[in-house]
Amino acid sequence: MLGRMDLAYVDESGTPGYGGSQTFALGCVVVSAISWPDVFDDLIDFRRWLKASFGVPVRAEIKANYLLRNGGPLRPLALPESVRFTIYRQFMRLMPKLELRVFAVVAMKADLSARGVLIDPRDIAWDYLFQRLERMSTKSGVPVMLVHDEGESRLIRKFARKARRAGSAGAHFGTGVLRRPARLLIDDPVPRQSHQSYLLQAADLAAYAAFRHLYPPPGGHAPIVTQKTWEELGAARYDKVNSLAGGPSGIVVAK
Predict the structure, then answer these.
(1) Start-to-end C-alpha separation, the chain
(2) Planar angle of CA 234, 239, 244, nearest 5 degrees
(3) Distance, CA of 241 to CA of 29 (rounded, Å)
(4) Along the 255 residues of the chain, how does pLDDT read in single tens digits?
(5) What is the domain partition of the chain in residue ranges?
(6) Partners of residue 10 on adjacent β-strands
(7) What is the Cα–Cα distance from 189 to 198, expressed in whole angstroms?
(8) How many CB atoms lie within 10 A of CB 43?
(9) Cα angle vertex 188, ends 253, 180, to 5°?
(10) Backbone angles phi, psi at 28, to 5 degrees
(11) Which of 22, 117, 165, 183 has the fewest Cβ atoms nearer than 10 Å?
């Protein structure tokens, strides 16, 4: 179809470097540009339902960290854990209904460190993500534009330009590296403030759910995000990103 394009919304979970969090994860939510207006309208309806059901303002930012700790704009509402669990789960269940494609890249810090890898897990995760976007766009013939949470615009722009100019990927069969420049990656990535984008907020929730799928929460009480929360995405999980490497559907593991 003439003029088709995909928009890939990406947000992160975890800290860069080998300290802090156990992983560095990227959540990616892909929507067809031609479907974007309908998806946006449906997200508005969902947020109105949250407002009517739980008092969450339509414009309040919903991120994993806020739901976990009752923080940010949710703090004044003092939502009980059962409500925050429901909000997270319903947001995840909404994505397949909107026919979104969702995947995540999770860099496992302990495994990378044990192998003596010196590259920042953040850099590895972004490299893997651009490899998957290159494969997705090349196989479909549909260009893709990346939208990310602002904060590291210069770094992400550098990764994108490298992927477009000299992208590569490890060969699945045999040894060596395949040259895979991301020719259908459109322009430089677009930074957005996550509180102004429901789809970036969806990417944030996906990133943390992917982390928890690999690292189940400790026992002791009913968690907001369980090991099975990622599975609530159902058909939205874009399993082509790891169809050859294997592992949880839609989660690319870097270790």
Answers:
(1) 38
(2) 150
(3) 13
(4) 446 999 999 999 999 999 999 999 999 999 999 999 999 999 999 999 999 999 999 999 999 999 999 999 999 999 999 999 999 999 999 999 999 999 999 999 999 999 999 999 999 999 999 999 999 999 999 999 999 999 889 999 999 999 988 755 543 333 444 557 888 999 999 999 999 999 999 999 999 999 999 999 988 677 999 999 999 999 999 999 998 888 999 999 999
(5) 6-254
(6) 28, 148
(7) 17
(8) 19
(9) 50
(10) -130, 125
(11) 165
Whether residue 181 contacts residue 133, with contact meaning beta carbons closer than 8 Å, is answered with no
DSSP assignment of the chain equals -TT--EEEEEEEES-SSSSSSSEEEEEEEEEEGGGHHHHHHHHHHHHHHHHHHH---TTS---HHHHHHT-GGGGGGT--HHHHHHHHHHHHHHHHHTT-EEEEEEEEHHHHHHTT--S-HHHHHHHHHHHHHHHHHHHHT--EEEEEETT-HHHHHHHHHHHHHH-EEE-SSSSSEEE---TTB-SSPEEE-GGG-HHHHHHHHHHHHHHHHHSPPPSSS--SS-TTGGGGGGGGB-GGGGTTT-SSTTEEEE-
6-254, what's its fold? Nucleotidyltransferase; domain 5 (3.30.420)
Q: For the whole prediction, is pTM greater than 0.85?
A: yes
Tell me the Cα Rg of the chain: 18
Looking from the CA of 174 toward its CB, the CA atoms found within 13 Å total 5
Identify the CA nearest to 90 among candidates 7, 209, 8: 209
Cα separations in angstroms, 204 against 37, 85, 135 = 21, 15, 22
